[in-house]
Structures are given as C-alpha cells and as structure tokens.
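Posting for a labmate who doesn't have an account.
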Amino acid sequence: MKKGTSIVAIGSFILAVLAHITWAQSNQAIPAASQQTIVLNSTSLLEKRTIWIHTPPDYQASSQAYPVLYLLDGDSHFKYVSEMVDYLANNARISPLIVVAILNTDRTRDFTPKLANSINKKTATDQERQTGGALNFLRFIRQELIPYIDKNYRTQPYRILSGHSLGGLFATYAKQSAPDLFQSTLLISPAFHPEYEQILVGMTPFLQQNPQLAGNLFVTIGHEDTRKVDALVAQLKATAPGSFRWRFKYYEEENHFSVPFPSMYDGLRFIYPNWFIDLGQLATYKELQAHYAALSGQYGYLIEPTQELVNDFGYQQLRAGHIDEAITVFTQNTRSYPRSSNAFDSLGEAYLKKGDRNLAIKNYEKSLELDPNNESGKLALQKLKSKND
C-alpha cells in the first residue's frame, strides 16, 4: 500500500474513533440541578420578593434535614455558590446545605439602617434618602422568609448568612440586632460607609453585652481601602469572647468585586473545620458514627454522613474482605436513605459476595423498584435468578 494511502486510512480511522467518542459523550446527560423559584408577598416590605432555592443532590432520596445558607445579593452569587456547596459537601469538606438566595429589588434601601443622627436629612443626597430599610428587611427575613423555608423544607436549626459589600453592612447589622438568628456569618468586603459608622463602632458594646456569644464570623476584604475593616478586626481582637470563633483574611490579589468567590470557599471551610474524615483511617462503622456524634455536639443538631461517604466506606470494607462489616455499613445507608436505589444496589452486591442469594435478590429488586433504569442492577438480578432456577 502506498504511503499516502496509509496516512489517509489512518486519518480516517482516527476521525471515526473521535466521532464515536464524541457521540458517546453526548449521551452523558448533564446532571439536573435541584432548584426552585418561589415568590413571597411580603407584608414587611409591602412588595413581592423572588427567592431561589437549591437543595442538596440527596434531598429527594433522603429523609434528612439540612442547615441553610442564606445569600444576600442572591442573583449575583446563587449559581457559583450552590455548585461550590455541592462540590465541597460531596467531598466531605462541609455539610450539605440548602442554599436560599434573596434576589434584590432595592438593595440600597434594604441593606442600610436608618441614617445616623449626624446626617442632615435636608441636605442628604437622593441615594441617602433611599436608605434606612434594614429594619424591615431583617423583619422580612426573620418573620417571613425563614419560617417559610423551615415549614416547606427539611431544615436544621443552623443558619448561615453571607453578605458582600452593602450586604456585609446588613449582615453586621443583623448580627447586632438578632445575635442568635444566624449561627455563622460571612462578611465579605463589608461596606462601612461613614454615614453608617454606628454599625461599625457598635461592635464593641455589642460584644461586651454578649459575653456568651457563640458561633462563627468570617471577615474578608480584597485589595482596597481596609481601614474600616481593620477597625472591625481590632474590636474583635480586643473584645470578642472566647466562645465566639472569628477569622479575618485579606486577599491581596482580589478586588472588591472578585473577592466573594475565594471568600465563600474559605468561609465555608472555616465554619466546618473538622468536618472531613479520612475513611482509610477507620476500621468500623462505629468509628464513623463517633466522628459524626462529635460533629453533632459541636453544631447542636443530629448530623449523619452523606450517602456517598457511607457508600464509599462500605466498598472500602468490601474490598478489604470485611464482608459482614460492609453489610452493616450498607444496611445503615438504606435506613438513612430509604429512597436511594444506589444504597440498595450496594447492599445487594455485598450479600452477593457473602453468598446470600435471597437477600441479594431482595435488595436488587428494591433498587430496581426505586430506579427501573439501573442497568447493572438488572443484569445482576437476572444472573441471580437464572442460577436459582
């Protein structure tokens, strides 16, 4: 065969392979996001407010309840934050979270408290006259939004508030006005403008009046004027009680508008410093339970491991030949996630390895009942039933 012909043939073969790969990849469906939009007719704000809600991937398959992350400026931050939360939770770095994003109508009005007494309202600018709605906005969150979320979603009594810029000013105001409403707060490049100096200077008396204050506060700023945030940090250093965890981080390579992304990542990791556990260091499910019992004590509500984490631990036991321990692990996963096809599929596989065909069949059948498209489960069940026949 001629050399040129050979090159053409090889090229055609490569193109065919690439076309097959492209076609195969195109059949991989993009995972559906569990997201909803609601509209609340607020009596506190006398207007309708749009809320975006993201639930964890396991939400429908489980009966668990979750902490809630409330996002100010939700229309700007919802997409990347919800993806970040799922990524960190799936890698066992933080708790799975419900993300609730509050979309803006008039952020200047909502995020700012009443003007300080030193401001002459007659000579105030138009923007200054539009301020002062923080009290009503906090009332909306506390009396309308949070009760709605708690009633309609499975929530834990643990809430996080994240605010950037003017949202950070409001988050500071919210902490001082309702200290126990949010257990953790992220202040991202907070805008402590001179006319709202009372919020900044009010931090010291607030801390002094709350010596038992608990929870977490993460404060950040980018490469910008840091004097106001430095003043806040100085007050925290001097007055914050030992029961109150806080941290400040300066991002030299970010500006006021790019700092939210790294701040959110680092802030969530700060809130959940001991969440991760190395499965390779565990021998039994009881050790995994002990880790989550300690977390439950730290955060004040019952915390259980995610479906994926327990499943991974079960297969770790299975690969090590600890079949009975693997069955214990997978059985617990079916109890925690009774609507998960994958949990029952894994338990069926463990019983198959043990040689218990009846229980293997029972669990594969349950898996297929929950997900008729479980092709590997169908194949395993067919083999098991053909051997029984």
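Reply:
Got it, the structure tokens are right above this. DSSP finds 16 helices and eight strands in the chain.
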